[in-house]
Specification:
The protein is of the alpha+beta class and 157 residues long. It is built from 3 helices and 7 strands, in the order E-H-H-E-E-E-E-E-E-H. A 4-stranded antiparallel sheet has the order 1-2-3-4, with helices on one face. Helix 1 runs antiparallel to helix 2 (49-74). The longest helix is centred in the middle third of the chain and has 26 residues, at 49-74. It starts with 9 loop residues before the first strand and ends in a 6-residue tail after the last helix.
Length: 157
């Protein structure tokens, strides 16, 4: 007797390791702040102030990402990725975005951003899904999303 393959349609909960990633973002922000302050204190030439300002922007970016991960991990049941026959639902801190498979043009791993890039027909910018769901890595998450999309009755190449 052979077991049937698992259904590609499932709900992937937020990983417990998301708080660890958030902590890394916090320390990246601290390092950016320290680097910017150190560079500014060294009385650099005028053109290197660009690096000081860039360090400040990077720090703000990482602090925002850290704050977002803290909100998500405060109640992990409000953040999930649900793969259904009709599409996928991406929930972050209770805000759910529903994307039907008919609108998905492509699903691919973006190694530079370490996220799955989803091209959606009605959006100018791509949607990025970070591998923080269901304990899956980047390529496993991409594979799971592709499998759900291809198993959907609405999938057409």
């Amino acid at each position: 007797m052979t077991d049937a393959p698992p259904s590609p349609f499932r709900t992937l909960p937020l990983d417990a390791r998301t708080s660890d990633a958030g902590l890394l973002r916090f320390w990246a922000a601290i390092a950016s702040v320290i680097g910017a302050i150190w560079l500014a204190a060294s009385r650099p030439p005028l053109w290197t102030w660009i690096a000081v300002v860039a360090g400040g922007f990077v720090a703000v970016f990482w602090f925002r990402r850290w704050a977002r991960s803290r909100v998500e991990t405060a109640d992990p049941t409000k953040s999930y990725l649900e793969l259904t026959e009709a599409g996928f639902h991406l929930a972050h801190a209770g805000e759910v975005e529903r994307i039907p498979w008919e609108l998905v043009r492509a699903v691919e791993a973006d190694e530079e951003r370490v996220a799955v890039r989803v091209e959606v027909a009605e959006r100018e910018d791509a949607l990025y899904v970070e591998p923080t769901f269901g304990g899956l890595g980047l390529y496993e998450l991409e594979s799971a999303m592709r499998a759900a999309r291809e198993a959907s009755p609405s999938y057409a190449e």
